[in-house]
Amino acid sequence: MSPTSSVNPKQANLSDVAKHAGVAVSTVSRVLNGNKKNFSVRPEVRRQIHASADRLGYRPNINARTLRGQKTGYVAVLGLRMLARAVHDPSDSVVDRMADALASQDMHLTSTFVGSRGGAYAMPPWQVESAVVVRATRPEDFAEVERSGLPYVSINNPAGPGGSSVLVDDRAGMLDALNHLFDLGHRRIAYCHRADRFGVHYSQSERLETYRAFAAQRGLHDMIYGLEAEGDTDGRIDALIGSGATAVVTYNHYVAMDVIQAADRLYKSVPRDLSLVTFNDEYPMAFMHPGITCVAHPADQMAEVASRLLLEKIGGGASSSVRLPLSMVVRGSTAPPSAVV
Amino acid sequence: MSPTSSVNPKQANLSDVAKHAGVAVSTVSRVLNGNKKNFSVRPEVRRQIHASADRLGYRPNINARTLRGQKTGYVAVLGLRMLARAVHDPSDSVVDRMADALASQDMHLTSTFVGSRGGAYAMPPWQVESAVVVRATRPEDFAEVERSGLPYVSINNPAGPGGSSVLVDDRAGMLDALNHLFDLGHRRIAYCHRADRFGVHYSQSERLETYRAFAAQRGLHDMIYGLEAEGDTDGRIDALIGSGATAVVTYNHYVAMDVIQAADRLYKSVPRDLSLVTFNDEYPMAFMHPGITCVAHPADQMAEVASRLLLEKIGGGASSSVRLPLSMVVRGSTAPPSAVV
DNA sequence: TATCTTTTAGAAATCGTTTTCTATATAGTC
DNA sequence: GACTATATAGAAAACGATTTCTAAAAGATA
Prior knowledge:
The structure is a homodimer of 341-residue chains. Chain A has 341 residues and is of the alpha/beta class. In chain A, 37% of the residues lie in helices and 16% in strands. The first copy, chain A, has helices at 14-21, 25-33, 43-56, 62-68, 90-103, 143-148, 170-183, 202-218, 233-241, 253-265, 299-314; strands spanning 74-78, 108-112, 130-134, 152-155, 163-168, 189-194, 224-227, 247-250, 275-279, 293-296, 321-324, 327-329. In chain A, the strands form two sheets. The first copy, chain A, has a six-stranded parallel sheet with strand order 2-1-3-4-5-11, covered by helices on one side. A six-stranded mixed sheet of chain A has the order 7-6-8-9-10-12, sandwiched between helices. In chain A, strand 3 (130-134), helix 6 (143-148) and strand 4 (152-155) form a beta-alpha-beta unit. In chain A, helix 1 crosses helix 3 (43-56) and helix 7 runs parallel beside helix 8. Chain A starts with 13 loop residues before the first helix and ends in a 12-residue tail after the last strand. Chains A and B meet through helix 4, helix 5, strand 2 and helix 10 of A and helix 4, helix 5, strand 2 and helix 10 of B. Chain A binds a DNA duplex (30 and 30 nucleotides) through residues 13-15, 23-27, 29-30, 33, 35, 37-42, 45, 60-70.
């Protein structure tokens, strides 16, 4: 017989602790929850209760607790999908930082890992009091959380009527990227965008429109290379590189990797033959050689604002939407164009 | 007043449905759950109950249900730390796949995002029935889960006495990598390892020992470049590249990126001047140019085995530990050494 | 000493569901 | 007609925690 097959000595419950400490369950409950309302205990009893709870490894049953109707302090994180498989975006950093910010309010982010079976935007089966939605791109992503009527905040996407949202100023971000290249002397600037893997993101149209407006205003050629999910991506990128563009802005770090790879394959050098700016300062943009110039999301600030908006909603406040500025992180992938073209 | 502050019209419960249908709660419960045991109803009553439930939008309270049913179906995932900031490893994929596998058993992976405040290996405050531990490197990482007495499985690390574990055969993996390079004709093969960011992993010593044994057996020079967390990493890697090695094996994808960057900086070309094999087939190894040859973890198989071991533990079975083989994914970063050295 | 407050703590109700225990009709058999 | 199955349901007891009542002991005040 295995040493561990003696099994779980059945989770201790409040009554077990009470018996062990020689007091009533209500007393244990109040002591462990620090409930001071019309209540006090002798220090030695308090100590004994804590000792007993510790000894028995007491762990509250969340079902009983929430059934009774107390607040859980749990916040659902919707939209996480999978941890791995390279589906990372700036929202991840924001969620990390929100975990810190909300912990000080005794609120805990929780999530159900749904794997690949979909349902990433389904409310968890346990009771939560609010939610954070990430990576939502389709209206139906908000359906469940809207139906729940709970306060929520959406990261980097416009929320439904019941939620607040934290967005970034993609127009200004695109303008920064283009001006950076223009000021370096580039006049043949391409934009390489791609449909988001899971849907259409508002940044796509905003960046595209801004690019077009910029090109028109400065009298530059439109050099737009759209990568469809199903199309001949490699061919499009090869065409881009052969187009005589001296600089390119890419929609995200994945596209940037594709461009770098293609440039390498076609014996073009970054930034000598092609300057590169990408949205999303995600791994490994900072670790490439040369480092990639990025339009970066203000993750700290986004987390701070998102936490604030969520607390406001919980407090009964109205929905609101805040837009934050993106910032340029200049690295080695951008330089003046070579004299010879 | 905000449009959403009119709030939820209070969820209907079983008693509401019973009243509406003119029957007892127990009858409603049995009908809605299709409970046939010692029970039957007249068809018209059954129809009426379904109609009432539909009409009132009845949704069972999961807390009450699981409270009564005595099992929550929640599995804690310990050790996730942060989502972002480039701290990914093969365990992430395994967790994703386990979420799928366990969902069919009505088990849900749950996690508390702890942000940067530590405590990644603390049991969550709610009641779970088992746990999955990832990225544990120190004995104390298992302390809490061991203390809980719950069945658990550790991914890619030897568990404590109370848990099962799924490991990989790092010795064989290293041997595969070395043989691959040796067979290509390489005789000056370096190994570039690094202390894990969060502790010492069993793979470190196994790979190192295997490298040494291989070199001794084949009569090759030991070319070991250990990167300490605090040391002059860049200098060490530059030395490696200047050492005349024709091939290098790196401890993980982060180190591989460092080596690639250094090679680029020193005008060395992969694989012409240096072949590269790395452990961990993580992003963006497959997307580099050339693609990086990897020793890959069998994520699907690890997930499958881990799920099975967990269920066995839950069923009262003994702890066990399974080692799975790594596999070579050959890409463009490895080639025969150039004639000229 | 008698009365009032405060401290300290227990008993019991409650949350929504499942399930066991009971109970009444109705149908079938002799 | 008496007796036994069977069909059909309701009543009530859990599950584990929180919280509202309730109450005894200890201390303060007159």
